[in-house]
Design goal:
This protein is an alpha/beta fold and about 325 residues long. It has helices at about 15-25, 50-60, 75-80, 105-120, 135-145, 160-170, 205-210, 215-225, 225-235, 240-255, 305-325, and strands spanning about 5-10, 35-40, 65-70, 85, 125-130, 155, 180, 185, 195, 200, 205, 265-270, 280-290, 295. The structure holds nicotinamide-adenine-dinucleotide and (2S)-2-hydroxybutanedioic acid.
């Protein structure tokens, strides 16, 4: 029997991430090969011509699962009944900027977006914020969607996780599939904490396989923290295809139960978290999806003293970002 249609909204749909993302969604990579979908493509009014071109190309692919396409800039009507909302639309940073330098321009986008979502989206809508700085933008969105559960709002740190997996695999001269249990703690920024302490290589602690603590504490962490800037310096534009791939993987992890004893990285509400992070932040934790569909922060990981110090820094930065947008937060 055919499954009921799921509606997926993408903001920033005329941008570079969306240009690789939308076609993968239409092909079934996001929600599965048996899930019919409607795509609601949203961008600014000035980008509507470009959106129409994207819609033409989607039609020209004749994707079997893609049943409906809507394009435009009207948030309330385009969020109507959506089950998944991907908030990609926002300015990217340029060379020499930190992601939080975008707060002044991008923060307000998430007030309007969340208010519209709150009015018209399906009540169980899952919201992934990608536009930077994604943790704090997600916090803003949560504050302005009082009728939607905050546990359905997420900010993306999967790209950082994938970057960390690659670095560990390259150092240990193993396949990326040999690396597991990698988590990112904190902010999607240069203070993020890629966790080498709990990471595993072929089922053994990565610290036992790599046996180079100086590299793990130094080059490894910095490489992952600064990889976004490195891509911008090389490409002249921020990462797009790898971001799009990370969006797909984030949803697969959210929607498919996580194998026993494993986790993945996602920034979620810090509400009642088991690691002592203050309330009212969007913080990246190791997470797992239960059979029931509930997402849980993976509990009980013992903390290494070095990582604990680093986590204190990323927590401090998120608190600072929150104070920078205090005027955009409710309550
Ligand atoms: P882009 O400039 O190519 O596209 C952004 C699109 O958003 C543009 O088409 C623009 O018109 C649109 N837009 C701007 N304001 C909007 C609004 N209010 N409503 C709807 N659309 C709006 O940028 P990109 O490379 O696609 O990156 C998008 C965002 O994603 C940036 O903020 C970037 O920094 C961020 N990003 C995050 C990650 C992550 O891992 N979290 C990774 C890569 C990029
Ligand atoms: C990334 O990590 O590649 C994105 O957040 C883009 C950026 O500004 O670094």
């Amino acid at each position: 029997m055919t499954k009921p249609l799921k509606k997926v909204a993408v903001t920033g749909a005329a941008g570079q991430i969306a240009y690789s993302l939308i076609f993968r969604i239409a092909e079934g990579d996001l929600l599965g090969q048996d899930q019919p979908i409607a795509l609601h493509l949203i961008d600014l009014p000035e980008a509507e011509g470009s959106l129409k071109g994207v819609a033409m190309e989607l039609n020209d692919c004749a994707f079997p699962l893609l049943k409906e396409i809507k394009v435009g800039s009207q948030l309330e009507s385009l969020f109507e009944g959506v089950h998944y909302a991907l908030f990609v639309g926002a300015k990217p940073r340029g060379p020499g900027m930190e992601r939080k330098d975008l707060l002044a321009d991008n923060g307000a986008i998430f007030v309007k977006g969340a208010q519209a979502l709150d009015k018209t989206a399906d009540r169980s809508v899952k919201v992934l914020v990608v536009g930077n700085p994604c943790n704090t933008n997600c916090l803003i969105a949560m504050h302005h969607a009082a009728n939607l559960p905050r546990h359905n709002f997420f900010a993306m740190t999967r790209l950082d996780q994938n970057r960390a997996v690659f670095q560990l695999a390259e150092k240990a001269k193993v396949a990326t599939t040999d690396v597991s249990h990698v988590a990112i703690w904190g902010n999607h920024s240069a203070t993020q904490v890629p966790d080498f302490f709990h990471a595993q290589i072929r089922g053994r602690p990565a610290i036992d396989i790599i046996q180079d603590r100086a590299w793990l504490e130094g080059d490894f962490i910095q490489k992952v923290q600064k990889r976004g800037a490195e891509v911008i310096a090389a490409r002249g534009k921020s990462s797009a295809a790898s971001a799009s791939h990370a969006i797909i993987e984030t949803f697969r992890s959210l929607l498919v139960p996580t194998p026993q004893g494993h986790w993945y990285s996602l920034a979620v509400s810090s509400h009642k978290n088991p690691y002592g992070i203050p309330e009212d932040l969007v913080f990246s934790f190791p997470c797992r999806s239960l059979e029931s569909g509930v997402l849980e922060i993976y509990p009980g990981l013992a903390m290494d003293a070095f990582l604990e110090q680093k986590i204190a820094l990323t927590k401090k930065e998120l608190i600072e970002e929150r104070s920078l947008v205090a005027h955009l937060l409710k309550g």
